[in-house]
């Protein structure tokens, strides 16, 4: 088969890779229906994470089950399935508490046959994959794919930030996760959603997904703007969807005492000042989103047409043009690129 | 009147101070029945916080209302009352959300007439003070005083750490707050309570307050011991009651993914590594305990005899011997000193 491989910063190639096979009796192999480029992959593409050897890329996936191992009981060949970037058994204590991305048996999906390819091996298939009620129509594919990562991640951000009916929510970051954090906050009943976005092209989708206010300032000025919109108090809930020192501090300082930050931007070189945090009274919860916790609900919402997170894909390319998909996101010409094998 | 004043590290004196008076129509003045030395005052006593001028000390108090301002409506002269170290209006949005120590009108109690004295001015009396059903018997005084700070702080640590019936809880720190965190965890239904304590003299009260296991190791060894006691996963909830870099990291690393740390040790020179925190999946909430949120419930539990947090006082002195009270705590001869005017 063929798939995406990064060789060096800025150098993603579509090339021959070994076909994935069943390696453990709990594995499944799926034929990719759609895949995409993740914003977190840009850390490699931009050379911020070191690329030391050619590495398969991509970890968002939805497709048809081709084959399952002997111990797989609930997932069947022919089903259309969606999974998350970490495989999980979904039965251990940590999974049962809803933190499947820290499952005691977790494995990264895509190791040795990553998502940006024609086929994918998924470990722990029963615990990882969720099947749709039947084969989806083509127009649902982008939204179902979004559930695999960016929607589930934005959703976790909103849940971790404690969004409730009536909440005032601020969202730091206007990439795909931030935009779908807005959608999640709206679905969870937020009354006011402040999108912190300085990119005009992102403000329109932010508003479509549910933002009621746009704050274009960043850092301390952004915090001051959120405070002004919230009677001086700050937001009840803040979704952090960037992962830098500036964005984390902007998030913490935008939350009111007793409020919470759900941080889902992959943290890079972030250190939090303990004394400021202590006196802030802001609750923190974040990390790799346990998308599996939310998948059945998210698939159901997509299936019923309640939400349309697939709108976050504003560029669609054949999978063999994956390199252009990366370039477009790197250059901010696209929010998120959908790829079709 | 006379009261405690710190002049320099190690130099606490009992000396004449101006009598507190009603300064705002929302004030009350109370005559102290009991007061005490707070572990957090040792930061000044040990010279870790700078002492730049003679400063009244003490912020834990319980006593009889002497006089109230014209706008005080619920608190009456003659009532026995307990309050917390921050005055709060108890009506603003932040108070209503249970974070009275971040009240938009908060004031430190004791500014200009601190708690280690014969009389005390309490601002925002209606929002700050809670009266007992009637005059308490003498044997209840230590426990009612404990509710003013150390019990309420340990309780907040347990609540912030999400302690629930059946939880496994670890407690970092064996001072008065840590010990009463153990009591709080037990009252909230924890099944297993691991006290992290290396001081033999503290292990006995820890067990009396509800600890089921003692871990004497600190740092990484302490974390390993907690993991071993919890099937490799870590505790559901960890109460941090020290405030140092080592104790915070010990707390975070002792919690399982999806678990939580309630940190109530006043943070000193703590910086948290963002990436480790991100991948830990540990929820953080802490800060100055909103004791006022819990006071009615805590007073009720003391009144009914359900809990006896006053046992945390293992030294009792007349107030004029306050200097010896500090020395005994500094030298770890006492966990906590009760002072009677």
UniProtKB/TrEMBL annotation, chains A, B:
Entry cofactors: Zn(2+)
Query: Which InterPro entries does the entry link to?
Result: ADH-like_C (IPR013149), ADH-like_N (IPR013154), ADH_Zn_CS (IPR002328), GroES-like_sf (IPR011032), NAD(P)-bd_dom_sf (IPR036291)
Indicate the segments forming the Alcohol dehydrogenase-like C-terminal domain, all copies: 176-286
Keywords, sorted A to Z: Metal-binding, Oxidoreductase, Zinc
Q: Tell me one Pfam family matched here.
A: ADH_zinc_N
**SUPFAM superfamilies in the cross-refs:** GroES-like, NAD(P)-binding Rossmann-fold domains
Question: Known CDD domains for this protein?
Answer: FDH_like_ADH3 (cd08287)
A GO molecular function held by the record: oxidoreductase activity
Q: Which residues form the Alcohol dehydrogenase-like N-terminal domain?
A: 25-125
Which PANTHER family does the annotation name?
Answer: DEHYDROGENASE, ZINC-CONTAINING, PUTATIVE (AFU_ORTHOLOGUE AFUA_2G02810)-RELATED, ZINC-TYPE ALCOHOL DEHYDROGENASE-LIKE
The family annotation for this protein states: Belongs to the zinc-containing alcohol dehydrogenase family.
- What name does this protein carry? IMP dehydrogenase
Instruction: Tell me the organism's taxonomic lineage.
Output: Bacteria, Bacillati, Actinomycetota, Actinomycetes, Pseudonocardiales
């Amino acid at each position: 088969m063929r798939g995406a491989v990064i060789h060096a910063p800025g150098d993603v190639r579509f090339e021959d890779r070994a076909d994935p096979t069943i390696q453990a009796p709990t594995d499944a192999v799926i034929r990719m229906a759609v895949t995409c480029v993740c914003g977190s992959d840009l850390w490699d593409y931009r050379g911020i994470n070191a690329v030391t050897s050619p590495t398969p890329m991509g970890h968002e996936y939805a497709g048809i089950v081709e084959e399952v191992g002997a111990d797989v009981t609930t997932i069947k060949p022919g089903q259309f399935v969606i999974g998350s970037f970490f495989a999980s058994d979904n039965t251990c204590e940590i999974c049962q508490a809803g933190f499947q991305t820290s499952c005691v048996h977790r494995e990264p999906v895509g190791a040795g046959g990553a998502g940006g390819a024609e086929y994918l091996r998924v470990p722990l298939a029963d615990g990882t994959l969720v099947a749709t009620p039947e084969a989806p129509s083509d127009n649902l594919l982008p939204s179902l794919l979004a559930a695999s990562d960016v929607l589930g991640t934005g959703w976790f951000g909103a849940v971790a930030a404690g969004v409730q009916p009536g909440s005032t929510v601020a969202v730091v970051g206007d990439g795909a996760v931030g935009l779908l954090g807005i959608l999640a906050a709206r679905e969870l009943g937020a009354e006011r959603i402040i999108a912190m976005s300085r990119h005009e092209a992102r403000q329109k989708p932010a508003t479509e997904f549910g933002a009621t206010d746009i704050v274009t300032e960043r850092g301390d000025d952004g915090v001051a703007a959120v405070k002004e919109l919230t009677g001086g108090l700050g937001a009840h809930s803040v979704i952090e969807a960037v992962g830098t020192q500036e964005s984390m501090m902007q998030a913490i300082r935008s939350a009111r005492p007793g409020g919470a930050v759900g941080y889902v931007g992959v943290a890079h070189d972030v250190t939090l000042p303990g004394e400021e945090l202590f006196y802030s009274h802001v609750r923190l919860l974040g990390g790799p989103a346990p998308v599996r916790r939310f998948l059945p609900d998210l698939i159901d919402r997509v299936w019923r047409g309640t939400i349309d997170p697939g709108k976050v894909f504003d560029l669609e390319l054949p999978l063999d043009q994956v390199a252009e998909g990366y370039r477009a996101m790197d250059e901010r010409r696209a929010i998120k690129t959908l790829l079709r094998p």
